[in-house]
Structures are given as C-alpha cells and as structure tokens.
C-alpha cells in the first residue's frame, strides 16, 4: 500500500521519454525498450569493435550492447545515467548484457571485470562511477569478480567531446596505472565502459593492463558510437 501511495505522489517515469511507467515496466516504457538499437555483435561474432583495435593493442573479443547516435534514444539514456544520477540504468544494462554473454563460452571464461576508472576528483564530484553497477551486474551474471582497485586513473582530464582519435589518444597516454597487480596475473579480464567512440581510452587501459603477467583482455561497453 505504501509503495502504491509513493508511486501516486512520485510516479516512476521512463528514463528516455518521461512517460509514466505501467506496473509491469521498469526503467523504460515498452515502446522505448523496443526502440533501443541493439548491435547483437556478441551473438553473431561480428568483429566491428575488435577491428577498432587492430594494429593498436591485442583484444581477445569485444562487444557493445547498443548503437549510439546523437540526439537518439541511447544518448538520452546514457545522459540520465552519467549526469542525472540514474544509476539503475547501469543495473538494467548490466543484467541485460550479462544474460546474453553468460551463454557465450568466451565471456563465460572471464576471471575479472574491471571498469575504466574515473579520476578521484571527478568521482567525488559526480558521486559515482557510471559503469559500476553495470560491471557488478555483469559479474553476477557471469559468476565472476568485479574489481575496481587495480586500474587507476592518475590524471584528471577535460571532456573528450569533439576531440579526434589522435587528440584523445595523446591525452590518455600515461594516465592509467596499476595497483595490486598480482590480482591480474594470468587472468582473463573483461574491461568495461559506458561508450566506445574512437577507442582511445580503452586502448590506453589495455596498454596499462598488459603490464601485468600473461593477461588476456576482452572488452564490453554499453554502447558504440
């Protein structure tokens, strides 16, 4: 009864179109859920994401759940996650992708899930890392460990919006370092982030992770631009 009263006073709305959700809807209305542009990369063995890293760093496998377009539904969703404190979006996407990856042998062999880190200053300002719940729920689905204390960001950088690949890569060199490196040795790591654009940030993270002994790195993101 209390829940019903609270829903009446503070109705739950769709994160993208702001329409009031029905009792059987969670986070997104049915219409918006069906409009989400899924990639199915991991289902079809599509190498689109992996090709972004050819000749740059070795990536075992890579996927992204959704396609991102400017002013599109995925941009609205990630904006709510990243800037409006709607962390449940990460939970929702983590459960979704995790359910799909757990039946794929390659991803089922992951030992650790590691997020692209935020600098401590930015994390204090925002209050959270937007990929934390995404990663934790991926870890639950894959029956593995979420680990956010090994890959650290040492320099606070400005927004990467409107920068080309070289500018992004140049900004990322030597910005990531490892801590508790022993946790990584001989492990298959799934590196996660919210969105992949040029791949420069993920590339720099892979370079850092490869400083550990005998690691394999795969990648999974919420979206790809």
UniProtKB/TrEMBL annotation:
InterPro entries given in the database record: ComF/GntX_DNA_util-trans, DZR_2, PRTase-like, PRTase_dom
Domain of life of the source: Bacteria
Domain Phosphoribosyltransferase positions: 155-221
Record domain Double zinc ribbon: where: 5-38
Signal sequence bounds: none
Family label: Belongs to the ComF/GntX family.
Designated name of the protein: ComF family protein
Organism, as annotated: Bizionia saleffrena
